[in-house]
Amino acid sequence: MDEILGEFIAETLETLETLSGEIVAWEADPSESARLDAFFRFFHTVKGSCGFLNLPRFERLAHCAEDVLAAVRRGERIADPATVSAVLAVMDRIGALARSIGEEEQIPESEDDALLDALSMNSGGFEIFAPLPVATPTGDEIAIAPAEDEDEVRVDTPVAEAPTRRSSDGGSRERAPRTIRLPLALIDQLMNGISDMVLARNDLARKMRDHGVGPDLEGSFERLSANVADLRDMISKTRMQRVDRLYAAIPRMVRDLTRELGKKATLELDGGDVEMDREMVEMVVDPLTHIVRNALDHGVEAPADRIAAGKSEAGTLRIVARQSGNQIVIEISDDGRGINRAALVEKAIAARLFSAAEASLLSDGEKLNLIFHPGLSTAAAVTSISGRGVGMDVVRANIEQIGGVIGVTSAAGQGTTITMRVPLTLTIIPGLIVRSGALFFAMPRGNVVELLHQNSSMIAIETIGGARIATIRGERYSLIELEDILGLERNTELSGPRTLMVVRSSIGQPYVLGVEAVDSNEELVIRPASPAITAAGVFAGMTLPDNGQPMLLLDAAGLAQKAELPLREADSKARPTAIKADADVRAETIQALVFCERDGKQRLLPLAVVDRVEDLDAGQITISDGIAFARIDGRLMPALNTQGAETGTPKSLRLHDGHEQISYLIEDVVDIIEVPRKLDAQLSQGRIAGLVMVGDTQLEMIDPFAVFAEAAGRRVGAGGTRPIQCLIADAEDPWMRNILAPLLLQAGHDVSFGAAGDGTPDIILCSDEAAVCAAGDVPVLALREVADPAAGGPASIYRYDRETIMAAIAQAVRRAA
């Protein structure tokens, strides 16, 4: 019985979360019978289940709500705001009762009478009860529900033989998905296991490159690697949730707030099909809720004020989510009054953050960013919703703590847009591997603004009052050394200059962290660290890089606290000189990598396209048919700037355009600087985009478009811009699977197995005896077992004639194209 009761509670709370937004939409359009039917079915289901489980309070509330909705269905009662509010209150009470089952404190049964009176036809009005707490959003594929000891996930799996439900009018509905519930811990264990497999695969690939293996073993490894990658993607999807589950509670919240504030607002939600990691969804719930409340309270005007301003009576609140690379971008915009910069500056001066003279030097962007300062608010009076100056600073801290960025734009009288950029997942993040005191640590790449060498001409280091200060391009930062914070011995035999990292902290000003060196840039698998380690306050967890050696993940905010660095508000008075640098001009600059070409000439390259800097072995550079390739991380990518037979350890810039990667060989990395987005002189000659003045020196800027276009042209010359999709029809044939498939993979083609017609291949390969009927115009290539042409079909090819097979594949695909 306990198991059945747990299922009832989980299903009830899950359905309530979904319906809380639907009932607001039903109120806006009472003629929508489908939504009314959904609410009626919910209460009817609860009533029926309660009789079996002996829950009389549930049964009483559900029965009364069901009667009211039945009256609405018959046309005897209209869905006015009072009725909708009463139904919402009953749903809230059922949710509260479900959560309180098994707890000592229970909601008094006498309070149910007020709800039932509100449902009465003679009720003259109804005050909104406390809304449902925002539940943890869940996705269509994973629905979180509480169990006795641990959370569980419900995995919805469409099954063809599932019974088809039919509506009352005889029309068919969608088949109900069959589901199972799994502990979240099991999903995490699966993810950890597949991550370990990926690390083991990478380690094996490195050893295979070092020792050298035959083509047959490489082909088998490539197939294994592809299977591991597919398995990792599938397991990762079990952790992903649709953003529309994050939206579920927003319509209800907007409705309640607008009624409380006496305002009108239309809610627009877009991008609900975007998916993100469930842990990231949980992190975004509170910031998004706070921003929506602020938009309705501060931004959207009262109806009378909007009409006086020439606007529609109802404001518009729009929330849009989209995926941009490995980030999720969530924009919350309103068409309200905008942010009053003058009021923010006046309150900042009153709080003695800076003087009136210093305030006059603030740029527009810095004035807007004052809303993130603790204690500052644009509200004229303190209300139950906002006005205390507490909230937006916490929102920014929460977003930056998970490696995200938050920004704000506003136009007076037109509205405000707040943009949150958060990582797609917290499980795997890009990070830098740093070395200090003969030990290795990881730093999230999202916390690092830029990297510089300590001997760079752009850096001036001085000691003031016992504290070290680094001045970079007019900006002053606190300088701390990682060895000093962690109590490590400094390496006195360091041959080159130390590396300085400009780190963005979630609780304080950006600061400079000195490390011995930055070794590499990798995708890191994040694991929780033991309590004894996290208690130190400077580590955010542990990670396993490709070499499989565990290392600790540094916490940017924890390092700042350990070093007792000044907080944001404490350092404001020390920045008037930095404010004079004109932030608007800085906003039109980009970060560029200064590097030394193999001919000794220094050039620039936009840092945005540089994925990592790495040292290669000469054996990793191969030339085939005049085209150079770099073998990195078990894959081949075009290599530019090769010098024939390579020797030593050439340095490579791995460039990434969002889809393809190429290797650009250089002599060495010099620095990272900021340069104007607009070039001083446009050239557009080959790889050179133009000239940029850096101090008294002019440097050539590499054109990423030209570089990637050159690499793409080489790929075309090497046999096409994409691999040929080969379908092997004889999936059980050992020769086809063990001999032919590795050969095709080595040639750069994609291979799949199955019956003819599965998928959309470019060509189908089969044995000469197999009769394959290809769908459409897909060519079929038959391979015979004997060399004698007379022994096989007229169009067959001897299975060990490699050149003829490859030529036939390319010719068949070209003919079909």
From TrEMBL:
The modification Phosphohistidine is found at residue 44. It catalyses: ATP + protein L-histidine = ADP + protein N-phospho-L-histidine. Its EC number is 2.7.13.3. Residues 175-426 form the Histidine kinase domain. Keywords: Kinase, Phosphoprotein, Transferase, Two-component regulatory system. Pfam families: CheW (PF01584), H-kinase_dim (PF02895), HATPase_c (PF02518), Hpt (PF01627). Residues 150-175 are annotated as: Disordered. Residues 163-175 have a biased composition (Basic and acidic residues). Residues 428-565 form the CheW-like domain. It comes from the Bacteria. GO terms for biological process: chemotaxis. Transmembrane segments: none annotated. One of its GO terms (cellular component) is cytoplasm. GO terms for molecular function: phosphorelay sensor kinase activity. Residues 1-101 form the HPt domain. Involved in the transmission of sensory signals from the chemoreceptors to the flagellar motors. CheA is autophosphorylated; it can transfer its phosphate group to either CheB or CheY. PANTHER family: CHEMOTAXIS PROTEIN CHEA, SENSOR HISTIDINE KINASE CHEA. This is Chemotaxis protein CheA. It comes from Sphingobium nicotianae.
